[in-house]
Specification:
This protein has about 120 residues and is mainly β. The protein has one domain: Hypothetical Protein Aq_1857, Chain: A (Sandwich), CATH 2.60.300. A four-stranded mixed beta sheet has the order 3-2-5-4. It has a three-stranded mixed beta sheet with strand order 1-6-7. A two-stranded antiparallel sheet has the order 8-9. A hairpin with a 6-residue loop joins strand 8 and strand 9. The radius of gyration is 18 Å and the shape is globular.
Length: about 120
Amino acid sequence: MQDQVTQARPARALPPPIHLTERAAERLRALYAGGQSGKLLRISVGSKGCSGHSYDMNWVDAAGPGDEAVHEHGATVLIDRKAILFLIGTTMDYEVKALEAGFTFTNPNEKGRCGCGESFHV
């Protein structure tokens, strides 16, 4: 009987956990060029609100251990590794409405949101 050598398949590149729209990337580039120069936006998921989870965004000087960097449309965001499973497939956009503007998340993993829109559950 011959010894068979089994070779592992080469790892394929995984898609990024989130996608940035062009509007989100444009706003991030403007923030990075202005008051947040030298910083990066870090996205995490925290425990908050009546539905249990919330999107948290903080400015950081550098990526932390385990953070995943997402680069799209010339902009970069960091994703906390603890949040990746909550965020897979999410699209981050930037919306401007009559009385408010801000980043929004369309997350296919969400099963619902609280009435005030501050938190979500999966």
